Every structure is written in structure tokens, then in C-alpha cells.
């Protein structure tokens, strides 16, 4: 556990551990929940498809391609829940593969018209 006060900046880092030096990581989805076993019922989106859903979410430059650094302002789920749990999905891609998800950044998914 990591203890922070509400509205305190929280900084995180995810590292890829692989012998393959030609990989890079990208933070795709990050959600928070008051229940460590349920990330579907009551969740708060920090990022979705690479987009920041929370105005305080920041993706920081990293000194290495196998490390993703990000942060946000700590919050709580009302006052009924003493803890907030995070679950993040990262994408691993080949370094310099500019057609990969890691290099596309934010991806919006367009809804199709029912007629098409």
C-alpha cells in the first residue's frame, strides 16, 4: 500500500522486464476502484485508449523506452471507501515500429451508422 492525502500528486512508473532491448511500453487504460477485486462495478477512468480521462492525469517523459511514467492527483470514492486501487493496462510494442499501438498515442474509436 501507498498512503497519500487527497489532492496530493501521485507519481507512478511501470517497467518492462525483458531481455529484448527492442521493446517499448505505452499506458493504454488505467482505472481506479474502491474494491481491489472488482474493476467493473464502481470505477473511475484515468485513461482510456491512451486518452487522459482525468484532467490531472499526466504522462511524463521517460529516460528509457521500457519504462512508462505517469501521475495524477489523488482522490477518494466519496467518504465511504478508505482505499483506492489501480488497475492499468500497458501495451508492449517493437521499438521504432511506427505503425504499432505504442506510437499511435490516443486512439478514438468511431461509431458507425447503423445503415452502413
Task: Give a verbal description of the structure.
10% of the residues are buried. The protein has one helix spanning 101-104, and strands at 9-15, 23-33, 44-48, 51-52, 58-60, 67-73, 85-94. It is built from one helix and seven strands, in the order E-E-E-E-E-E-E-H. It has a four-stranded antiparallel sheet. A three-stranded antiparallel sheet has the order 1-6-5, with no helix packed on it. Helix content is 3%, strand content 39%. It has a single domain (9-96), classed as Zona pellucida, ZP-C domain (Immunoglobulin-like, Sandwich). By secondary structure, it is mainly β. The longest helix has 4 residues, at 101-104. Strand 5 (58-60) and strand 6 form a beta hairpin. It is elongated and about 45 Å long. The model has no long low-confidence stretch (mean pLDDT 87).
Write the layout of secondary structure elements.
Elements: E1 9-15, E2 23-33, E3 44-48, E4 51-52, E5 58-60, E6 67-73, E7 85-94, H1 101-104
Antiparallel strand pairs: 1-6, 2-3, 2-7, 3-4, 5-6
Amino acid at each position: 500500500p501507498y498512503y497519500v492525502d487527497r489532492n496530493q500528486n501521485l507519481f507512478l512508473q511501470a517497467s518492462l522486464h525483458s531481455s529484448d532491448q527492442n521493446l517499448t511500453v505505452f499506458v493504454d487504460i488505467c482505472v481506479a476502484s474502491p474494491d481491489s477485486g472488482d474493476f467493473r462495478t464502481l470505477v473511475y477512468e484515468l485513461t482510456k485508449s491512451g486518452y487522459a480521462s482525468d484532467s490531472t492525469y499526466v504522462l511524463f517523459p521517460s529516460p528509457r523506452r521500457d519504462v512508462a511514467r505517469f501521475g495524477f492527483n489523488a482522490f477518494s470514492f466519496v467518504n465511504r471507501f478508505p482505499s483506492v486501487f489501480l488497475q492499468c493496462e500497458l501495451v508492449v510494442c517493437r521499438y521504432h515500429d511506427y505503425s504499432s499501438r505504442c506510437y499511435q498515442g490516443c486512439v478514438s474509436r468511431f461509431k458507425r451508422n447503423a445503415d452502413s
